[in-house]
Every structure is written in C-alpha cells, then in structure tokens.
C-alpha cells in the first residue's frame, strides 16, 4: 500500500546575510537534512503511529506521502502512485487531516463545505446522504451541520473537519496531530472515532501525534524517527515491554503510617496522606506487593503501567 | 463541471455574509466613478472636443472602460500569496481539482458580482448626469480582446501571488502592480491622448490589453496599430500563462511548507 525506499528530503534554509543588499543579490542557503534515506513499508489496513521529537521529520514524511512535498531523493509509492504527481485517481484515495489546519469554509454553514467536497470527489446523492448520516451520528454532531464554521468550538470544528476529510471514503488517511489543542473529552471522542473508522472501513492510517496516548490507544505498530532517521520500526507492545522499567503502585492508606514502614517499600514518588505512590521495578514487584499487603493498612491499591511518555524517554536514553 | 459551478455558487454566497462590508465597498467604488466623471464634465464645460474625443465619445469611453475593468480586474488570486505563506493552499493541493480552474472560477464569481453592481451604478450615473452614449461597434473583435484581457489579468495576478513561494513579501509587488494598472491601463483617460511614442511604449506592456483596448474597439476607435495590438494581446496571454505555469510548477517543487 505504501512503500518508501531511501527517502531523503533536504530543505534549503536561507541564512541572514551581513547586509540587506547581500540578502537580495547573494542569498546564502544552509542545507537542513529533514529525512536521511529512510525506508519502510505499510500494508493495507494497518494503523501506524509515527512519533519523534520536534523537527524529527514526522510531518515531512507525511507531507511527502500525501504529495505535498517533493522529495530530494528516494522512491515513494502510495497505492501504486508517485504522490507528488498528484494524479486525480491518487488524490481521490487519500486524505490528510491536520489538527492545526482548517479546510472548511469559515463564513458558511458546515454543510456547504461538505457539498463542495461532494462535487469535487463526485459522490452520488444517496452515498453523500448516507455518509453524512453515518459520520455525523458516529461523532454525535448532526445538530451542527447548519451552523457556520466560525461559530463552532475547536472540538466541534475538528469533528466537522473529520467528516469533510472522510466523506470520499479514502483508502489511506494521514493524521497529523489530530487531537492537538483539544480537551480530554474531545481527544477521547476523536481517538475512538479514528479507531472505529479504521476497523469499519479497513483504511490504512498513518498518524503522528505529540500526545503519545493517541498512539498508544490507536496504533499497533510504531515508527520512531529522530534527526531524519528511523530508529525504531516495530510493534508498540514490544517497545512498551522492553523499555518499561516498572509499574506505578498507588495506595490509599486507612490511617497514617510510620515513615519507616513506607520507606521499607521504597522511596515514594509522592506521599500526601492518604495517597502514596511508588514506582517499583518490574523484577521487585511481586515481593514489594507482598510487603505492602503485610505492613501497610490500605483501603485501595492500584498497579498501573508506566506512562508511555516515560517509556519513550527511556527508549531515547538508550539510543 | 458541476464542482466548479458549486465553487462559483459558494463564492457568491460568501460575499453576502458580510452585507454591510459589501455595501460600503460598492459605495467606495461609486464615489470613485463620481470623481472621474466630475473631472471630465468640468473639462467639457469649457470645450466641445478634447484632442480627438468629443464629449459623448469620451464619457462613453469612461463608462465602458470602468464597466469592463470591473469584470477584467475582479480577482481572488490576490489571496494566494498569503495562502502559500500560511500553508492554507495545502487544502487545495490535496484535492482532485485543477488549481488554475478553481481560481478562475473564484475569479469569475468575483467578476460577475463586480460587473453586475458596476452596471447598476453606471446606469445610475448615466441617468443622473444625462450622459450621452454613442452606439457600440465591433462586437466580435471586442470579444476577442476582452477574453484576452481577462486571461492576461488572471495570469499576471497569479504571477504576483506565486512570488509567495520564494518570499513572504508579496504585498509590495502587488501594490506596484495595482498602481501600474491604474496608470497604464487607461482607467482615468484614453491612452491615445498621450504623445505617440509614449503611447506605443505603453502598448508593448500588458496593461493596455486589460481594458483600454477592448473599450476602444467597442466605441469604434480602432487605430492604425490594430494588427500590432491584436498580435501583442495573444503574445501577452501566452507569455503570462507560460510564466505563471512555470512558477507554479517550480514553486511547488521548491517550497517547503515548513512548519505549516
């Protein structure tokens, strides 16, 4: 479905010259390697998370895959097409959704933007009505269809952006930070929707996000990119297991315990009566849980995985 | 074809969202028509002819050239420079729609609206000032020059906007372009009132082909340079198209849309 071989992208960044005249007549450029010979393949029906620090090359990769950017070197094939050629048959099969970009017509009711996409993608009337119906009920936003875009909240607008971008039922969807700036409820709705959409329509999805929770909830496969190179390409589960050093154990104490009893378990991450939180190494976990149940009076005990942010930090530390 | 019709309808609909803005904009245009007419009506108070133009001919020239310019110069392509720099243009690049045809449709919506309003306003002027109008001539030749004028205006405006691929400073070139249009396109007076050498020099530029020559042909003032003008109008259509297309292709390849 997507094949990338030795993909390289070098940006020419202008350097500020000594004078205004040299800036105009003798502009100097610095080469900034955004992608350095990366290769990967994505099969049909896969949902892949693309993560990495700022400037690592995530969005550049997505933009090349969608045909927005012209690669400096390497081969890219998406559904059998060279993306930059922007053939209509290719564009009809893809969608690029960026949390920070707005494709809806700002001053008009949302439905007008949908009508425009209906004509651009040549969708028949029954299909259009059916898809609007389905997508708007999945996102619970039927009541917003006749509201002008400028009157929508950010979360509402994102839902509408999703409908506008998916109305032609693309086979490949590129999501660039789809939950950026949204509150936790909207983030959850969008994640749930993307996951369901992928399942129902067997779409291939490539997703970048700074919220690692997005990736954890949705992707099975993870590609980590740093300084223009792929440093991990494999299952999310494997990286979570390999780089998770321990578990977060939280207790609600029945009554205040002596500090020596608490420190016998380990140095707490936080302790504010009645809640105490420990971070316990994987290998020590059975023994420490036994000790807790024996020595500390508690009303509630929870064991949670280490946060994905911390695991990825561990991964980067090990590089 | 239906997609461009939808683009056309929605563009018109967008204009009527801010009705007060629209009315004030038209009022500004109407006032600018009044200024030009007051100047020329004053000139003709003391004389019956001005160079080779009598009162009816010159006033008809002004009316028709303003009407034609409302169509030829109406454009939405001026927004493209900012859309390149903000990255908003990406939305269009990702859709199976021709960029040039899409913007031509936006322009046509703008042009029809401009023309419709200008027609109404100019008719009002004719009635108020009892302006004598001469008979219009050469409709076929006019149509050729008029279509070429619309095409030249569209491609030149695209060229200015496509500078946005290489610089964020597209405002200054556009300002100069607009100023040149008003000086060199015959918006205030017919260009053949100028000394011949200067007039000929202007004819080498694309500006007289926008609405000066279509107007002149329509009012029946075809001069001895018509063959030269006919060829030049096609040369400018071709040249402006080639340059804008080349800029579009190269700009797309070289632009980074960095951080957008």
How many structural domains are formed by the residues of chain B?
A: 1
Give the integer mean of the pLDDT values of chain A. Answer: 88
Arithmetic mean of pLDDT of chain B: 90
| N/C terminus separation of chain B | 31 Å
Strand order of the largest sheet of chain A: 5-6-7-3-8-9
Cα(first) to Cα(last) distance of chain A is 30 Å
Q: Largest beta sheet of chain B, briefly?
A: 2 strands, antiparallel
Q: How many individual domains of chain A?
A: 2
Annotation, overall tally of beta strands of chain B: 2
Helix content class of chain B = over 70%
Poorly predicted parts of chain A: none
Strand content of chain B: under 5%
User: N-to-C SSE series of chain B?
Assistant: HHEEHHHHHHHHH
Helix and strand pattern of chain A: EHEEHEHEHHHEHEHEEHEHEEHEH
- The CATH architecture assignment of the largest domain in chain A turns out to be 3-Layer(aba) Sandwich
Short summary:
By secondary structure, chain A is α/β, with parallel strands linked by helices. Chain A contains twelve helices and 13 strands.
Question: How does this structure look, described?
Answer:
The complex is a heterodimer of chains A (319) and B (260). By secondary structure, chain A is an alpha/beta fold. Helix content of chain A is 37%, strand content 29%. Chain A has helices at 20-25, 58-66, 88-91, 110-120, 125-138, 154-166, 184-201, 212-218, 236-243, 259-265, 285-295, 308-317; strands at 2-15, 28-42, 47-51, 73-78, 94-98, 172-176, 204-208, 221-226, 229-235, 246-253, 270-272, 275-281, 298-305. In chain A, the strands form three sheets. Chain A has a six-stranded mixed beta sheet, sandwiched between helices. In chain A, strands 11-12-10-13 form a four-stranded antiparallel beta sheet, with helices on one face. In chain A, strand 6 (172-176), helix 7 and strand 7 form a beta-alpha-beta unit. Chain A starts with a strand and ends with a helix. The mean pLDDT of chain A is 88. With 260 residues, chain B is mainly α. Chain B has one domain (2-254). Helices cover 71% and strands 2% of the residues of chain B. Chain B is built from eleven helices and two strands; from the N terminus they run ααββααααααααα. Chain B has a two-stranded antiparallel sheet. In chain B, helix 7 (139-162) runs antiparallel to helix 10 and helix 7 runs parallel beside helix 11 (226-254). The longest helix of chain B has 31 residues, at 99-129. Chain B is globular and about 60 Å long. Chain B starts with a helix and ends in a 6-residue tail after the last helix. The mean pLDDT of chain B is 90.
């Amino acid at each position: 479905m997507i094949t990338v071989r030795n993909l390289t992208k070098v940006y020419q960044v202008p350097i500020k010259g000594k004078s205004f005249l040299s800036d105009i007549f003798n502009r100097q450029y610095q080469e900034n390697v955004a992608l350095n010979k990366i290769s990967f393949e994505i099969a049909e029906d896969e949902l892949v998370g693309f993560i990495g620090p700022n400037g690592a090359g995530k969005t550049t990769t997505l933009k090349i895959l969608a045909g927005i950017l012209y690669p400096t070197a390497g081969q890219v094939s998406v559904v059998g097409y060279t993306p930059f050629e922007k053939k209509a048959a290719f564009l009809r099969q893809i969608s690029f959704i960026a949390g920070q970009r707005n494709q809806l017509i700002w001053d008009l009711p949302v439905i007008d933007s949908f009508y425009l996409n209906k004509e651009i993608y040549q969708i028949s009337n029954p299909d259009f009505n059916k898809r609007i119906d389905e997508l708007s009920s999945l996102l619970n936003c039927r009541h917003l269809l006749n509201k002008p875009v400028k009157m929508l909240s950010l979360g509402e607008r994102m839902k509408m952006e999703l409908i506008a971008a998916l109305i032609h039922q693309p086979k490949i969807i590129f999501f660039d930070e789809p939950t950026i700036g949204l509150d936790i409820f909207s983030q959850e709705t969008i994640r749930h929707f993307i996951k369901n959409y992928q399942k129902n329509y067997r779409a291939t999805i490539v997703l970048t996000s700074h919220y690692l929770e997005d990736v954890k909830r949705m992707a099975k496969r993870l590609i980590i990119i740093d300084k223009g190179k792929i440093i991990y390409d494999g299952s999310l589960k494997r990286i979570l297991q390999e780089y998770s050093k321990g578990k977060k154990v939280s207790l609600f104490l029945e009554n205040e315990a002596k500090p020596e009893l608490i420190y016998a378990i380990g140095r707490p991450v936080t302790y504010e009566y009645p809640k105490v939180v420990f971070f316990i190494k994987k290998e020590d976990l059975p023994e420490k849980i036994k000790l807790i149940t024996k020595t500390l009076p508690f009303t509630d005990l929870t064991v949670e995985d280490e946060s994905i942010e911390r695991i990825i930090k561990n991964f980067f530390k090990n590089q | 074809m239906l997609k461009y019709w939808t683009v056309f309808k929605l563009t018109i609909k967008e204009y009527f969202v801010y009705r007060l803005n629209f009315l004030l904009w038209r009022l500004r245009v109407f006032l600018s028509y009044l200024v030009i007419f007051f100047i020329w009506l004053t000139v003709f108070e003391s004389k019956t002819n001005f160079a080779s133009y009598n009162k009816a001919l010159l006033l008809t020239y002004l009316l028709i050239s303003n009407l034609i310019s409302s169509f030829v110069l109406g454009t939405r392509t001026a927004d493209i420079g900012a859309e390149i720099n903000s990255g908003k243009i990406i939305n269009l690049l990702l859709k199976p729609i021709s960029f040039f045809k899409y913007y031509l449709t936006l322009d046509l919506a703008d042009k029809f609206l401009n023309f419709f309003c200008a027609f109404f306003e100019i008719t009002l002027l004719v009635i108020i000032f009892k302006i004598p109008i001469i008979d219009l001539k050469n409709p076929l030749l006019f149509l050729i020059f008029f279509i070429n004028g619309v095409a030249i205006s569209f491609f030149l405006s695209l060229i200015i906007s496509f500078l946005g691929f290489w610089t964020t400073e597209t405002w200054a070139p556009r300002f100069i372009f607009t100023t040149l249009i008003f000086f060199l396109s015959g918006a205030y007076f017919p260009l053949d009132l100028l000394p011949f050498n200067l007039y000929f020099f202007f004819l080498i530029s694309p500006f007289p082909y926008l609405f000066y020559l279509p107007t002149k042909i329509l009012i029946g003032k075809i001069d001895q340079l018509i063959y030269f003008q006919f060829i030049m109008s096609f040369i400018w259509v071709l040249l402006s198209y080639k340059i804008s297309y080349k800029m579009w292709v190269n700009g797309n390849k070289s632009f980074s849309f960095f951080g957008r």
